[in-house]
Amino acid sequence: MPSKLFIVVVGVWFGLAPISGSQRNRWHLIRIPDPVARDAAITALESAAARFQKSDCLKVLTDFQTINGFTPAEQLAAWEIDIQTYLTMVTFIDDSRHRLCEKGGMFFTSPGSRVVRVCVEKFKLIRHHSRGYLAALFVHEFLHTLGVGESPPSSEEITARVMTRCGT
User: What is the pTM of this model?
Assistant: First the structure.
């Protein structure tokens, strides 16, 4: 049986940062059994949370209206929840058998739902993109969970605004 040190060294060698126990506990609502996709999701969530530490990124919470006519910032204020707490309240599940995954989707949710569905195989294909891009995709999904719809704004507009505000 390989030692933990061997696994960590091999993981670092291949560019995979080990996920600490505190990170795993913070993101306890990730329900993705595939360990590669799960660790990639945790890394992207950590990056998204770090970006929300910056005031420019927080502005994205006032850039869009929810389907109820509020901004995501107003929604959080009504719930008396800060964004860092909210991020840990969203569930990510593997829904790879969903028809949207079969059509090439990567993430999807309904406005206001705190469940984000992940197309694991597609996500694993892009997990090596820049941290900024992956974080932007997760922030995009968080905006939907807070009630932001699409068309308008388009999916591309939401991601572009997130990348402008939160960095690449």
Answer: 0.83
